[in-house]
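G.,

No rush on this.
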Amino acid sequence: MNNRFIKLHISILLAGFTGLFGKLISLNEGLLVWYRMLFAAVVFYCILLIGHKLEKIAWREKLKICGVGLLLALHWVSFFGSIKLANISIGVVCFSTTSFFTALWEPLILRQRFALRELFFSLIAVAGIALIFQFDTRYRTGIGIGILSAALAALFTITNKKVGARHNTRSVLLYELTGGFLGLTCLLPFYLHLFPVDTILPTLPDFLYLLILAVICTIGLQLLQIQALKGISAFTVNLSYNLEPIYSIILAVLFFDEARELNYAFYIGLGMIFLSVLLQTRRALHIRTN
């Protein structure tokens, strides 16, 4: 169990770097995610092929895993869209409502009882988001897209836990990346029609950033998260990921000077989100000691 918690928090640290690429890469969010999944799927397939670690999976199971991968792709598109419409700090803070959606949907999907305490902890984070939304009107569209991203992230994590339990981590990740790429390929023409761009080709800096994003912050991060989910509940994983904004905001302040864009409501809301993490951590430690 301790090993899985270590892997979980390393993946959270890597996730903290992910938001920066939303600002660094000039492509729109749809193309950004399309290239990210393409590069990640190709690189990871080559790694598994060379290492002879590619698991044979029935086509029915492949389709299920690919469907989960499409959820991941849509989550990423809305996440980077939130960052581009607002800023890194707003985008990653909205991600914190993932625990709220997970607390609602996990009992329904996995046929479990509702945990009222988990819902209460999650509502503290939601209240923090609501405070930011109410008092900082500049980024309301970005906040709305960010909340959609959190809802999709919750669905992905829950369904990922179900399909990941039956197969090895490497194969699940490969088919999720492939499914997300193929699904997004079908949707991208409609997306670009609604949101036209001047070019679909990345610049050289964009290409380098996309490689780093694909290899380190996609393959590495997702492998660690899938492994953690084998012994940790989806709610605990998503609530722990509320720490991601802390890392991302520090990086955004250091690299993009975002502190000047944030007001007091943002910091109060962030404090409420951090409180929800502390309460859940305290509860988890209490359960383990008893």
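When you get to it, here's the other one too:
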Amino acid sequence: MTGYQEIDTPALIVDLDVVEANVAEMAAACRGIRLRPHIKSHKMPELARLQLAAGASGITCAKLGEAEVMADAGCDDILLAYPIFGTPKLDRLRALKERARVRVSLDSVEIAEQVATTGRTEVFVEVDTGLRRLGRAPGAPTVALLRQIAKVPGIVVAGLLTHAGHSYSATSQEELRKVAEREVLDLVETAALYGEELEISVGSTPTARYGAVVEGVTEVRPGTYIFNDANMIRLGVATEDTVAARILTTVIARPAPDRFVVDAGSKSLTSDGAGTPGWILVAGRPDLEMRFLSEEHGVGRCRPGEGPAIGDRLELIPAHCCPVSNLFDVAHGVRGGRFDHELLVAARGRVR
């Protein structure tokens, strides 16, 4: 677990055997409905193609830049799960639609009118099922919006969409199950009130396996499952053995008997979840605890007089894998404890 001496640190390492197992497991869990994984978790065309080969019906992207990279890589069925506004983006969306089937999610008439200028477009209307981010409340508020959006020339309402990001605060599997069921039922009941058949698209790795078996769902959009992370371990939907992405780091200092310092800080791990118990885990070393990060340093605690020595290598499991992928130009694919090949993080930095 602490090898790969040919890889300089800090480095993003990806266990390809674990990735393949995770992809196969989620494909099996979603059999009978469409699986449309969110590629923001990895931003790597090679892994998007792996997901498609395993049965995914298409991919989900957050930003146009991600979608452009994935279309260049041959992904031709894309859900752009983000509102599009402004001439530069509309010009790019118009060009992207010439290369791939592109659907867009939105939650306002204003955005629908913008998207309509690019020609006939299928859209998903986002519903707020508890995250309090985008979307109106389920039921009558969303139905009123649906009727307005459906009147916009060139817009075809294909379905309803939501993201149960609030599931990350769950404290039990039963709570996750209830969030997943509610996520689907809110959309199904809203579609019934609207009076037309609509696709029902839900997401989030914590709820995906539960939501996939709720009657009425047609599509799920998990992302994190391909790598997993400390959040997924905390939620009980992953174990250390199913975490594929880790930060390989080197111990560079032992300034006190109970302290060690590694060469990976917030520029490698992000500050997501900072300070919460178990926010960053040291793989295979429950005796070590990460305490805080500065930009280039990770500071951990160990038992006095014990712990790693200068030069030792550790594998850190980040709190949230998605922003971590965006910090590296390449990932180092490994198999069986050996370096295999580099993976280009081609959509890194594509935030527009």
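The chain has a mean pLDDT of 97. The chain has two domains: 16-226, 238-344.

Enjoy the weekend,
O.
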